[in-house]
Amino acid sequence: MDARKLYEQLRKIHEPKGYYFNRDEARTMELIEALIVNKERYGYMACPCRLASGDRESDKDIICPCVYRAPDVAEFGSCYCNLYVSKEWNEGKIPRDYVPERRPPEKIVF
Amino acid sequence: MVNDKGTAPDPSDDKNIQVYSLSTCSHCKATKRLLAECTVQYDFVDVDLLEGDERKAIIEDIKKINPRCSFPTIIIGNKVIVGYKEKEIKEALGM
């Protein structure tokens, strides 16, 4: 799939929900391309910043957008990867702190 | 800043630098770029590209120093840094 096309598709779905792509376009496109790599590799768009097991059931909480996006954006203004962010984060109105891993370690299987 | 030898510190000064990374991770890529910009020698392993026993062995190594096994996990000398934390990385490099 074409990264630019996927970008536009995802943008249309997620912006109305209040999740914006990181304004750093180089970074965002790097992540979109990584999502395509994971889709080809695993059959689903596993989070590019987490180690996927390759088993869809085990990885279902980290299929992008992961289930941790909502609490991460609510608390830090950004998801773990800095792919989806709030408007305030993009506009530099809130500090851009490192987003710690929220996924419980027991969920991680390899 | 000068060290006790009266010379500028060499960031590569016999510090062993190891990066555990994912080939798809933006924070991992940013970490590698930062280390390259700092002109330090480092080793890295893209764990997502490993398979089988090699992958298991590396994951066990990472869990010993970062039980969450998140990426990047960076070792600089005897310091472990989890995540792309520019300030901490530079401090550990002595910059």
From TrEMBL, chain B:
A Gene Ontology biological process term: cell redox homeostasis
InterPro entries (UniProt xref): Glutaredoxin, Grx-like_ET, Thioredoxin-like_sf
The organism's place on the tree of life at top rank: Bacteria
Domain Glutaredoxin, residue spans: 17-81
PROSITE patterns: GLUTAREDOXIN_2
Molecular function terms, GO-annotated: electron transfer activity
Protein name: Glutaredoxin
